[in-house]
């Protein structure tokens, strides 16, 4: 949960974990990971919290690649409506019959 400036920047202590989180690093094929920032837009002149923000950036203290306000349903707020389709996970099918048979044969001898 981070405060976003008007230019959609966020600040954090430059710890090893923070630097690793905010950098979009390379991954193995098929195991891509995208780290998103979540928070609110801060108006420093009025000192008030603005809309809820989700943002993508590549590095700490850098401008956002993109930022989206998600308060689309709030009165007077502008934003982008999100739609999604649930995806049921495909669970692996594991057959342990042969392992059980071998185990029973080992116990019998």
Helicity level, as a percent range? 10-25%
Strand order of the largest sheet: 1-2-3-4
What is the H-and-E element order?
A: EHEEEH
* Count of DSSP-assigned helices: 2
Structural class: alpha+beta
Strand content: 15-25%
Major pleated sheet? 4 strands, mixed
The shape is elongated
Count of extended strands: 4
Report on the architecture of this protein:
- The protein is of the alpha+beta class.
- 17% of the residues lie in helices and 22% in strands.
- It has 2 helices and 4 strands, in the order βαβββα.
- It has a 4-stranded mixed β-sheet, with no helix packed on it.
- A hairpin with a 4-residue loop joins β2 and β3 (48-56).
- It starts with a strand and ends with a helix.
Topology:
Layout: E1 2-4, H1 16-22, E2 36-43, E3 48-56, E4 66-69, H2 97-108
Parallel strand pairs: 1-2
Antiparallel strand pairs: 2-3, 3-4
Q: Can you summarize this structure?
A:
The chain has helices at residues 16-22, 97-108; strands spanning 2-4, 36-43, 48-56, 66-69. With 109 residues, the chain is of the alpha+beta class. A 4-stranded mixed sheet has the order 1-2-3-4, with no helix packed on it.
Key attributes of the depicted protein:
109 residues, alpha+beta, four-stranded mixed β-sheet, 22% strand, elongated
């Amino acid at each position: 949960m981070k405060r976003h400036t008007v230019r959609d920047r966020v600040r954090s202590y430059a710890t090893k974990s923070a630097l690793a989180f905010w950098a979009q690093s390379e991954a193995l094929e098929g195991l891509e990971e995208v780290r998103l920032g979540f928070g609110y837009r801060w108006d420093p002149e009025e000192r008030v919290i603005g809309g809820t923000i989700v943002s993508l950036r590549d590095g700490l203290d850098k401008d956002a690649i993109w930022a989206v306000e998600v308060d689309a349903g709030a009165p007077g707020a502008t934003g982008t409506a999100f739609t999604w389709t649930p995806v049921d996970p495909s669970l692996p099918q594991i057959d342990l019959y042969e392992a059980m048979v071998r185990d029973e044969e080992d116990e019998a001898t």
